[in-house]
Amino acid sequence: MTASVPAHSRIRVGSAPDSWGVWFPDDPRQVPWRRFLDEVARAGYEWIELGPYGYLPSDPAVLAEETGRRGLKVSAGTVFTGLHRGPGVWDETWAHVSDIAALTRAMGAEHLVVIPSFWRDDRTGRVLEDRVLTPAQWRDLTEQSERLGREVRERYGLRIVVHPHADTHVDTEENVSRFLDATDPELVSLCLDTGHYAYCGGDSVELIKTYGERIGYLHLKQVDPAVLAEVVAGEVPFGPAVGRGVMCEPPAGVPALEPVIAAAAALDVDLFAIVEQDMYPCPPDKPYPIAERTRGFLRSCGI
Predict the structure, then answer these.
(1) From which residue to which does the signal peptide run (predicted)?
(2) What is the pTM of this model?
(3) For a surface tag, which of 111, 152, 181, 272 has the fewest beta carbons within 10 Å of its beta carbon?
(4) Is 4 within a domain?
(5) pLDDT per residue over 41-50, tens digit each?
(6) How many domains does the chain have?
(7) Which pairs with CB-CB distance under 8 Å and at least 24 residues apart come from 198-203?
(8) pLDDT tens digit sequence for 79-126
(9) How many CB atoms lie within 10 A of CB 180?
């Protein structure tokens, strides 16, 4: 007799437009937003992220009606920031953040996923700035992240969760640790993306064990180690790497998600675990079967 997998009831599973090949507010190669909502609900998910602002309706009343009749709820919005550039970019950053934060709050969500800006263009590979931050830039990054966390909490009641990401300055184990050690836990939490962290050489289980109190949100994702080896050897930018299939359908890649989920469950806190399989661009009929199979796999992991 096979032992049953324990249910981790404090982990809530969702998906995101990213898993349907959506990276931009409007792109003819992307699945239309109504189809995304139909398919993500049919695949068995109850929670979604907003994705790129403007892809889903930005009118809260319209979005609430569209999600509600499909049994969907919003877990978070997403913003992109270049906070290492210092106070001089604050006004521009806040103009971008405020509309997204307002919609996120209006939809009843409590999290804002913050993705640092890329040091090289994710499609062309053009180097935009130095890959390594100076001490002054690190100080700006951490201080401005705390400022963002404070402002978002005070004005919108949201908590920011900073997302380590390939081709950004918050990527490797060393840089993630440095960022966490230099920021206030009351203001800044982490969105641990298991795929991006593995892409950059990190161990998600060890991160959860070491910085468990800082884990505020999860993105569940895997990388294909063979493709990743080619990407690293060839210094391939993130966008083309995705086109090569570096992010793959679980459980075919790394890290193994069962121990990650077990480590997260051991924290005994409420967590969202949002499936993200980067697939831009992709054929419109490709995402749904993957999403359905992935939801089944996660149920076998107890969530």
Answers:
(1) none
(2) 0.96
(3) 181
(4) no
(5) 999 999 999 9
(6) 1
(7) 198/222, 198/223, 198/228, 198/254, 198/255, 199/166, 199/223, 199/228, 199/246, 200/164, 200/166, 200/171, 200/172, 200/173, 201/172, 201/173, 202/164, 202/172, 202/173, 202/176, 203/173, 203/255
(8) 999 999 999 999 999 999 999 999 999 999 999 999 999 999 877 888
(9) 22
Residue 41 lies in a domain: yes
Question: Residue 136 carries which side chain, given as an amino acid letter?
Answer: A
Q: What count of Cα atoms within 13 Å lies in the side-chain half-sphere of residue 296?
A: 9
Which CATH number fits the domain that encloses residue 74?
Answer: 3.20.20.150
Strands 111-116 and 159-162: parallel
> How many Å apart are CA 74 and CA 52, to the nearest integer?
13
Assigned domain for 164 exists: yes
- 2 located within any domain: no
Q: How far apart are CA 245 and CA 227, in angstroms?
A: 7
Neighbours of 211 (CB within 10 A): 17
DSSP strand pairing (11-15 vs 189-193): unpaired
Segments of the chain assigned E as strands: 11-15, 47-49, 73-81, 111-116, 159-162, 189-193, 215-220, 222-223, 247-248, 271-275
What is the tens place of the pLDDT at every residue in 236-248? 999 999 999 999 9
- pLDDT by residue (tens digit) across 285-299? 999 999 999 999 999
